[in-house]
Design a protein that fits this description.
alpha/beta, 13 helices, binds ligand G3I
Length: 315
């Protein structure tokens, strides 16, 4: 079937906006919940799971013959307050994390093709992020999370996922060493997700294809999991072209590496993008504009896929 082409899905827009729904249904072969599988949303109150939104997306995906990437099990962000505000012993917190991973993977067992098990655990300099998990549980929480997830759904492909992992650098070197070590120890890490949040202000990631190849040589899948390319506003013609080139180069890097199994954009419509709320003065990061009309980057990606004869079946 070849490369999966996916999008993050805003589940509110999926309900409220028919055009958004139609594009999600027809243009993609994989979906990732943008928010609704995050811990803070699935278990805002301890012991009371709220799966409805995520379940609805899983049903939508099944109806449209799409796979679902699960996002995300262990992260420092969007945690429920009862987790972050509690005072826990190491054993208590480890038990809480174990239950979370096990319950969530079990709930979706058989319906999720790949899980982002651990998300954004590294700093830019290659040291481990000083998160609640590292502070309380030590670095072993990473291997634990993969083992727990694998036990709950042995068929799901388990990913480590992070940003600024696209090119060669201290962070990707550190993740490379971690994945190599975990695999030597028999820990079931089976994929590396390169988020790929790019910005036309910066150079293209160094040696992206080579970086993907070195991960693949460790025996894991690679995926582009959250691609977008933000631009300083207003968009100049030059920056617009830079965006097209960035999208296209990331797709081409993926197409050139057989173990790059999926290419996901982090939302497809500028009106729904997370970027303007976080990066002051930047935006226009997606492949469809504010009115859900395809932009040049959309056509560039389609062209890349056609040339590679790797395009997923389209209606
Ligand atoms: O749901 C509440 C709503 O009730 C409230 O009224 C409103 C007020 O601000 O906030 C809503 O929550 C927001 C949530 O998105 C849902 O829309 C949060 O404030 C907002 O912070 C949150 O942003 C998400 C962000 O992760 C959180 O870190 C973005 O939508 C989402 O695109 C973004 O995704 C991350 C990936 O998970 C990991 N990689 C980076 C990527 C981009 O930051």
């Amino acid at each position: 079937m070849g490369l999966k082409v996916g999008t993050a899905v805003n589940t509110d827009a999926l309900v409220d906006d028919p055009e958004y729904r139609a594009i999600t249904a027809t243009q993609f072969s994989s979906v990732t919940p943008e928010n609704v599988m995050k811990w803070g949303l699935v278990e805002p109150t301890r012991g009371r799971y709220e799966w409805a939104e995520a379940d609805r997306l899983v049903r939508f995906a099944r109806a449209h013959h799409q796979v679902v990437r699960g996002h995300t099990l262990v992260w420092h962000n969007q945690l429920p307050e009862w987790v972050t505000a509690g005072t826990w012993t190491r054993a208590q917190l480890r038990g809480i994390l174990r239950k979370h991973v096990t319950d969530q993977v079990t709930h979706f067992k058989g319906q999720i093709s790949a899980w982002d098990v651990v998300n954004e655990a590294f700093n830019e300099d290659g040291t481990l992020r000083d998160s609640l998990w590292l502070q309380k549980l030590g670095p072993g929480y990473i291997a634990d999370a993969f083992r727990w997830a694998h036990r709950a759904d042995p068929k799901a492909v388990l990913y480590y996922n992070d940003y600024n992992l696209e090119g060669i650098g201290p962070k990707s070197d550190a993740v490379y060493r971690l994945v190599r070590q975990l695999r030597r120890e028999g820990v079931p890490v089976q994929g590396v997700g390169l988020q790929t949040h790019l910005d036309t202000l910066y150079d293209f990631p160094e040696k992206m294809q080579f970086n993907m190849e070195r991960f693949a040589r460790l025996g894991v899948d690679v995926a582009i999991t959250e691609a977008d390319v933000r631009i300083p506003l207003p968009v100049s013609p030059t920056e617009g072209l830079a965006q097209v080139a960035d999208y296209s180069q990331t797709m081409q890097a993926c197409l050139a590496v057989p173990r790059c199994v999926s290419y996901t954009v982090w939302g497809f419509g500028d009106a729904y993008s997370w970027v303007p709320a976080v990066f002051d003065g930047e935006g226009s990061a997606d492949i469809f504009d504010e009115n859900l009309a395809p932009k040049p980057a959309y056509y560039a990606l389609q062209q890349d896929l056609r040339l590679a004869a790797g395009a997923p079946p389209r209606p």
